[in-house]
Amino acid sequence: MCKADTLERLKGAGAIGIIRVSTAQDLIRIAKALYDGGLFCLEITMTTPGALRAIEEAREELPDVLMGAGTVLDAPTARQAILSGAQFLVTPTVELDVIETAHRYGVPVIPGAMTPTEILTCWEAGADMVKVFPAEVLGPAYIKAIRGPLPQIPLVPTGGITADNAGDYIRAGAAMVCAGSWLVDKKAVAAGEVEVLHEKARKLVAAVREARGA
To answer: Is the CB of residue 33 less than 8 Å from the CB of residue 51?
Structure first.
């Protein structure tokens, strides 16, 4: 799949599920549960043990999922993630070398930023979309405000996203949203209750679809 097709699928999905857990053994099981709930864009963070291997396995077992690598902090990690099969990269902060590496390999990149200056810096450096973090501190009104002077930049609010507020961000002008801790409920994971994750994914997808008027 070429970069343009990957970007089109990402934007069409409207939501990315962030998988950040403490043990690698849960990763594929979680990914399957989220996919079954309707999320086909998933991100495994590099802070998770065994993340690279999990990306490889997920690409093999869930070929219809767009699998990305998150919390990518430097170029070497970006390259490792891409070679492991990551189809897009996400950073928590402005990481220009990660943007450069993503371009070198033809992979979409969504760097993290907070201020208007950081957001524009990412965009001018070649970001395909810009992650606005921490969204729970800034709120949907911030997304709407940024869209005023910078309407050309696709924004992806991240942090504190749930099925209850995802629609508010989409209506404020967000290109898509990223959901993590609410979506991958630690208690449910520990108890092996994957049906909880399945249901949360379903609700998130439905909220985005409704906000888009689909």
So the answer is: no
